[in-house]
Amino acid sequence: MKVIFTIALLLGCSLSVVAQATAFQCTPFPEVSNYRAWLDSTDLSKNVPYRIDSARESTVRAAYANIEIGMSRSAVEKVMGKPKFDNLMTGGPKGKPATSCIDQWVYVFRKNNAIPVDPEDAAIYLTFGADGQLYWASPQNIPLKPKGSAVRK
Prior knowledge:
By secondary structure, the chain is of the alpha+beta class. The chain is 16% helix and 33% strand.
């Protein structure tokens, strides 16, 4: 369905903009678990804290230095390996279909409970836009520097 918007300019001219309405898609990266599936694979529900093994922790920390803003999800996976889980978040005007998509990958180092977002967690959060490009890398309780910005420019 094509929608035509006509904007009258101060000089009496008009400008027509044609927009193609398409079905919005927000798709997870293949073979990456969502939070619930990852949680079910741990003993957190039995109050047993989750800890990454030291070899994997060292690998992920070292790999973090090699990721760059603008990388694709596939390129990040080649550098960092698969995340523990991802969070797909869609947004848009209230009561309307989704118009935006954020895919956040989470590399968990330490988690003490099943609360999805806990300030005590030690993890690296990588945030990708709808185009699949990394725009923010944010370590939490890990001595690494963030990259990019939470606000996509």
